[in-house]
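From the pipeline queue, job 12 of 40. The input is one protein chain; the requested action is below.

Action: predict structure.
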Amino acid sequence: MQIARNVLAARIPVPLAVLVVFFFTVIRVSVEITLLDYSSYTSVLGFFGNYARFYLENIYYFLTLFLLLAFFVTLLTKKPLWKVARLGVYLSPFVILPPVIDHFLFGRTANYTYGTVDHFIENILTLSWTSGDTGAGISILVTFVAAAIAFFIWHATRSAAATIASVFGTSLIIMTLSTPDLFFGKDRGDYGYDYFLPFYYFVPLIVLAGALYRHYAPEQFKALMGNLRLGRATTFAAAAVLGSLIVPSPDQAGAVFLGMSYRVLFPVASVVFGWWFAVIVNDIFDLKIDAVSYPTRPLPRHALSVQRYAFIGIACAFFSFSFAAAAQGAVALGSLLFLALGFVYSAPPIRLRKTLFGNVVLGAAMVVAFFMGVFTMWQWDPVILLFDKNIFFALLLFAFTFATTLAKDAIDVAGNKKGGVKNLYTLFSRKTAKRIVVALSAIAFNAPPVFMGNPLLIAVTLPATALAAKHYNSRESAPFLYAVGSFILIVFFIYLYYGS
């Protein structure tokens, strides 16, 4: 009993509280699927394409609800957020009960129904018990949570007004989240509703989490935002966009542009969060190297603890998979491969970042990002996936990325030598390494137009290569080399897929 009292009295960090809520939410969703008669999907892609979105929808729903209610209760009680988060931890196991009660007491075998705009006020005032149109499971959830929060508010404030306000406030928050039509409108399309429903909850979740982090840990938030390395994230996002824009022939371009719309956002967001996951893993395992080469990064200057940084990395990995799963099953598998490449690049025991194979991993990750875009638009069409232009452009992406990422090692020489990293700049003299980088970049930039025998492309790539080589030799500016390479890649892409 004393151990139980100590646990109840302990200070629970908010990230830990979020993980506990996440854990019980996954159990809740599994129970709901089992009891409310969801059809089974035997294929892996069937799971990712259907169950995954359902899991995401509910996980985002409960995490958003948890943060909104925690913030609401802190406003009423003036108590620290961690104490309110502790209440959420105590309540989280009970989220499993609504589908159990709904199934065994009410005999339901169908999934829950959301509320509608037409009955929004009734749902708030009566919790859909006497009037309204949300499912019984949501009514049970609102009733239970409102009662628990009202008890907590009364115990903390002894104010009848605050207690009554908590009941209506809780109902308003839950019923608002349970009425997607407030966002989508009554005449939404089935595709948009189905695919974007998880992000009806995700958007407030990420905004609220960022706002709370910004408020309670401003210095840590500032350090984190300053270390996102948006340049490289942009290149991976661009690869996914290019993948979504491929066409078997130029005359199909118009149909692809019309059909793309918002779908490209899914692989783009997935690779961006996947890249941030890789950055965090790299920073954790490169702490000694960064202390020499990048002392202003969050971990070397102790702006963030390793534990909190790792928690943010796990969240990024989850968000990466979430966006991919919302797009298509094959994209979800691609995101897992992308995350795996990011992990083996930096983490022991493989730690390819310490060898020349590290640049191979970066090239492979760029190819994965490209095909995630392809899968988003063309699903599992083997004719499109094995299209010779796709294979050719994927090889170009790999070669460009491999050659240009060698350039970044010029900055890290002292730290890399201390950390035992083997790359061009630690194995050779600076002058020799620079020549190898320029030579490989020149081959990657100019071999394709020479191979295709296109003098117009050669007229573009040769002067661009000369400019990049001169700039890198004099300033060792890797970003400029990336920029020139990206420009040439886009020119190749337009010629390859949309040229006559």
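Job complete. The chain has two domains: 2-216, 219-498.
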